Amino acid sequence: MKLSSLLSQIGYFAALSCASVVESESVEQATQSPAASAYWFENVKRTGGTTFRNVKEYGAKGDGVTDDTAAIQKAIAGRGGGGGFFSTTRNLVYFPAGTYVVSSGLKASSWSVFQGDPINRPVIKASAGFSGTVLLRGSVGASSGLADFFRTVKDLVFDTTAVPSSKSLAIILWSLSQGSQIQNVLFKMAPGAGATGHIGIQSVGANSPTFLNDLEFQGGHIGMSISDTQYQFKTMVFKGCTIGIKVNQMLVGTGQNLHFDGVGTGVDSTATGTAHFNLIDSTAKNTKVVFSGAGSAVNTVALQNVKVDATTVRIGGASSLTGSVAAGQTWLKGGKYAAGAAGKSVSPGELIPTPRGANLVDSTGAFVTVVPPTYKEFTVDQVINVKESGARGDGTSDDTAAIQAAVTAAAAKGSLLFFPFGTYIISDTIKVPKNSRLVGEAWTQLRATGAKFGSIGSPRPMIKIGEPGDVGLAQMSTFILDIKSSCPGLKLLEINMAGTKPGDVGFYDIHFPLNQGGVIAKSAGCTSAGNCPSVHVSVHMTPTSSVYWENTWVSDAGGSQSKTANGGGFLVESQGGTWINGLGSEHSAMYQIAIHKAKGVYLGVMQSESAYWQVQTKAAVFNPGSWASALLPGEPNFSWCATGDGSCRVGLYQYVTDSTDVHLYSGGFWNFPCASPTCQTHATVYANNTKLFVWGQGVINSVNMIAEQRGGAVTAAVPRTANVGSNFNGLTPSVLAAYLRQSA
């Protein structure tokens, strides 16, 4: 039973207690000697090379007695090939049910997955004499993880209760950036001891991640100690921790569906390196302070739908709010641009009506959250391996026909379609019908190429989910979608389908790192991004769609060396409800996300960078460049910019037009490698919207955080100079708590 289902049936205090009991029982069950698992992923025929590594095949016993440290590390180290950003190898370390005793720290490699059996989660238990200060080192470096990507830890229990509570011990060191995730993990820790003790998740230095989800922390000094640029924390229970979340450094962050039970401080954001935090749809029981912030004017907070039985907010050591914040209300401290107001005002703490559309919320008024599917209810007989339909996944063979045949067959049977790790070449549209469930392995790659994706005037999807007006189920988990060659007429993913309920059409751990290693530029002989378009848009959600997302990253993986232009990141036209959790979208030429004529959009966090080449060479004068005569509805034409104004023509982080009921949280927008605060004229442009709410925005090196478009003209609405924040890793961001000028 999951916390989300409990909360929908019973009171929130009881839900906290019951959730903890249920998880504790699962831990106890996992310590027994289990029978063979029924989990399909453990038993499916493996055809993905050496990607999958069952730790028991490397000598681990999982009997709760034997020291399994060396065997587990051997499984981790058993990968072949390199492990850099453009690695073509993966490492999926799998733990069958059992208890695995470790006496010293484990160290993950890049592109690695630590995964357990979700039916009976295995326990990784630190011995009483554990040596070291970190149980699992998820990050490679000792400090900054800005260039460290793609790790997953899921479906596991970590237990440090045998280690003295006075010992400083981090269960997972997670100084990582995009493409990384910890999911469905329980942290059992010895109770905190004064100023020291156990920490569930710790990050240090400078990092750029987006998402952690569905976690529980029992005991310990700190549940999570965070030092990152932005984050969304979704569906978490903190029980008996001294501090639930310690924010040491963060530009913007969102805590959604968090539940504190018997905690000293829920969220401690008193450090000087923090800016804005949103706490929404959350509860606290027997917790002294739910949110504690610094007294600085640039330390801002928004609370929505937060139910408590004690002090809610403490700022600068003094109580600022006692009691709950009802659904449909926001308690705000910080700078805001209110509806009808000409400029900025600063709220010392006030309630603001904040309606949410019915298609976005559950029966309690909370934004819908979904438990990511593991398909543990399926047996191995209900799984089709795409390679058994003739797909090769070797990075060379054209697998289009074989994949289409397998997709059609799996949907007809209601089966899972499993893609063992590999690179599958696709030269024409794969049509995914209703009743489809596609599952990858350690980020299986689907790679587009060919003439059918070459027409700028006729954009064509590689993966097409349903036809316009379709209602049904279609889900994808754990894939990378990218390109083998320049495809200027390509949509990597087009979604037309809506579900009968939220999450029926869902995408989990799906990423778009385009132009890996600059291969497109090299193969096409590109001399500049302006004359070398690579894709039109990564994701297009059409008007008839309704889609749920968790943990996705769109990026030009060529980075500062890129000589290609990706047109757009996310294009959202959905009118049936859209939920986007943990979004990183960066380096696209025209926009990172465009929302047009949409009805009901929730965005929990968004990390973005402008395209490096636009600032380095002022090649932004090309925007909208190659796509000028083929813009899709809702894409910006930059007609408000002078022809040679490269700063004005830098791609927008958010372009929101003619939409209603749009809720944007925690936008962290970065312009590199420019060192001037005037590198980019407009970070975002909003036009002709209603019920648009923006909560928390941090921007680096843009003249205007927000501009408004009326007709063809764009004017500044939120200038950088009126919202200058404090030093953040040597940079000076502009920080805004709330934009409400189009909220009526």
Description of the structure:
By secondary structure, the chain is mainly beta. It has three domains: 31-228, Single-stranded right-handed beta-helix, Pectin lyase-like (Pectate Lyase C-like); 232-334; 443-739, 3 Solenoid (Pectate Lyase C-like). It has seven helices and 46 strands. A hairpin with a 7-residue loop joins strand 21 (325-337) and strand 22. The longest helix has 19 residues, at 12-30. Residues 52-268, 384-558 form the Rhamnogalacturonase A/B/Epimerase-like pectate lyase domain. Keywords: Hydrolase, Signal. Residues 1-24 form the signal peptide. It holds the Pfam family Pect-lyase_RHGA_epim.
What's this entry about, in short?
Keywords: Hydrolase, Signal. The chain is mainly beta and 744 residues long.
Q: Which features characterize this protein?
A:
46 strands, Glycoside hydrolase family 55 protein, 3 domains, 744 residues, disordered N terminus, Pectin_lyase_fold/virulence, hydrolase, signal, single chain, mainly beta, Pectate Lyase C-like, 7 helices, QRT3-like
Provide the fold topology:
Blueprint: H1 3-7, H2 12-30, H3 40-43, E1 52-54, E2 63-67, H4 69-77, E3 91-95, E4 99-107, E5 112-116, E6 123-137, E7 151-159, E8 169-173, E9 181-191, E10 198-202, E11 211-220, E12 222-227, E13 230-239, E14 243-261, E15 265-269, E16 273-285, E17 289-293, E18 300-307, E19 311-315, E20 318-322, E21 325-337, E22 345-353, E23 383-385, E24 394-398, H5 400-413, E25 416-418, E26 423-426, E27 430-432, E28 436-448, E29 460-465, E30 474-483, E31 490-495, E32 505-514, H6 519-524, E33 533-541, E34 547-556, E35 565-572, E36 578-585, E37 591-596, E38 599-603, E39 606-609, H7 612-617, E40 652-657, E41 660-670, E42 680-687, E43 690-699, E44 702-710, E45 713-719, E46 734-739
Parallel strand pairs: 1-3, 2-4, 3-5, 4-6, 5-7, 6-7, 6-8, 7-9, 8-10, 9-11, 10-12, 11-13, 12-14, 13-14, 14-15, 14-16, 15-17, 16-18, 17-19, 21-46, 23-25, 24-26, 25-28, 26-28, 27-29, 28-30, 29-31, 30-32, 31-33, 32-34, 33-35, 34-36, 35-37, 36-38, 36-39, 37-40, 38-41, 39-41, 40-42, 41-43, ...
Antiparallel strand pairs: 18-21, 19-20, 21-22, 43-46, 44-45
